[in-house]
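re: that complex we talked abt at group meeting.

here r the seqs, copy pasted straight from the sheet so there may be weird spacing, ignore it
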Amino acid sequence: MPHEELTAPVPVLAFPRQTLVSLLLFAACWEALSHLAPLLGIPPFAIPSLLRIAKSIATITPIDVVVTLARVIGALVASFVVGVSLAMAMYRSETLDKYLHPLIRLFMAVPVVSWILFAVLWFPGVEFRIAFVLMVVCGPVFLVDALDAMRGVSRDLRHMMQSFRPTTWQYFIKLMLPAIVPNVFTSWKVNISLAIRVVTIAELVGAVTGIGHQLSVAQELFSVADVFAWTLVLVVLLFLLEAVVARLEARILRWRP
Amino acid sequence: MSGPLPIEVRGLRKVFRQASTGQPVIAIDRLDLTIAPSEVVAIVGQTGCGKSTFFDLMIGLDAPTDGSIRIGDKSPHADFDYFRGKIATVFQQDRLLPWRTALDNAKLPLELIGLPENEQRERALEWLKRLGLGNFTNAYPHELSGGMRQRVAIARAFVVQPDILLADEAFGHLDEVTAAELRETFLVLARECASTAILITHQLEEAISVGDRIVVFGASAKLLADIRVAQWPQSKHALLREAIQSTLQNNRCDPRLTLPAKPRKKKLRQLSSA
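got the structure back, here u go
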């Protein structure tokens, strides 16, 4: 490695120039369009100016962000625990696998909107409805990924571990769970994005708090600026959660070459 | 560690069904073998002769179709848990857990037998140092060379000071210099631990240099020859290698392998006539 590379300062925040340029271009086009909207016959509220959007961002209520975040993280953790536990049980028992596998496939084929409707019809409590929808959507992803990863653990490693005669618990704790960690991180990344989208729809339908509810209010008020602001919050939230997972992944999987 | 144990194999038979045709395949056909406590036995045979099946049966992961294996008075399969910490294995590839450091890999068997954490650490460190890895205890497997990884695997096997040590082509994939060095280390440690050891190999040089006895398997683990290496002086090792080679090629015991026994018979006859 050249000496310069070793001594070069490491940027605190890696933000590619191209990304910055494309974002600025998009903002400039939007701003131009917002001014041209009346001339093009588009109602002024449909494309608000950046200043108007900034004002909407300033009025964002943190409690709604926290509530949505708590719902997402809570449901993801619960789905993860249930999904991985079921995967372990299905890995151990071929019979259980044969009975549960078709159901899991069926659950995964049901559209999110149908789950939301079922939740509204079946459960009176808003929080329970949202948790149910999130878990039923994200749980199978964790389960299927974990089960596939367990089955993908090399025969050599399984053989080696068994030769030392572990208990069933030790076998899972010392071999299976560490072996599936890379796949678990992939599932988390997929599920974070899925959960953010699902929680928004679920809150849109039945909640009285959260980002989804605020989007619903903004829609009733025909405030595109508010919709834009809350959407921006969702996107930032998604990026932040993904960044946290990526950091954890880099730290925990430092053993990878 | 409960002390060195004898191994008794009686009428051992293992039959598999071929997945594609359903036809039975006899991997081991009525094998009888006795191994004394602390004896180091090298098993040689051609590919597909049932060596690895025998290895799996010895570990206890698989049950015999017929016959028995007794280690002391227990079966490695039926009394599987009894042998936790008593049987250790070294495989052809190191089979280290990639997410564990050398130290954590070496202490794995100690974790399984539930030793206190500080004792696990001390013992694993000691064995890694003995195997020349004192400066690499925190290295991950991908940061180590093939020879170093195999040393960690050997440390992992010896750390419990096993009664029975099983090695399957443990040095076959290494370069000759590293393999010779590790063979010697392995033998010294096995003698020190007084473990009864079975070393499966296809390399005759390895079998001659490590084994107290060499057992030659023919097809379906048929016992073709059972050689006590001590009866062959160093100067005749080339002849011994040739005779084993010929036994393996012809699937029957080469007459030269019975040579060292002849003078003893003659001596006996002389004694009886006197």
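couple things i noticed - Chain B has a mean pLDDT of 88. The beta strands of chain B are 7-17, 24-35, 40-45, 66-71, 87-90, 164-168, 196-201, 213-217, 223-228.
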